[in-house]
Write a structure and sequence with these properties.
This protein has 152 residues and is an alpha+beta fold. The protein has one helix and eight strands, in the order αββββββββ. The chain has one domain: minor pseudopilin epsh fold.
Amino acid sequence: MKNFTHKGMTVIEVIVVVAVVGLLVALVLPQFNKLRENQTLKTAAEDVLTALGKARGQTLSSLNSSAYGVHFQSDKVVIFKGQNYSAAAPDNENISLISPATISDISFSGAGSDIYFERLTGAPSAYGSITITSGANTKIITISATGNASAN
């Protein structure tokens, strides 16, 4: 009687391993995509909150004896100097949002998509909310009449 030892894998074993790995990838991949969307949304909200805080802080510290504000676009926010946004101003600080996060809605008490802060009080020129969307998820940033900003 001969003693046979296996040296390698059979075709059936390879097919089973490939099927198991394929099944695991099919189950785990959607969860990673959801996790990525949630992290992108969280990062975008933090970027917007940071821009608002920075503009308000620069205003309250009277940096360059000026007010500062934030201009909102679908794919970025821009910190600007003064009370009026100008796309060509050299002092503008652009903060791009990571795709697929976008600003989908701006609802301010005043018209437009800009907000600036008053020099002595830090009060905003407008207050309201900004909606950020990433996939099926949304986050709402609220700017109060006192200038404080918070996310849901």
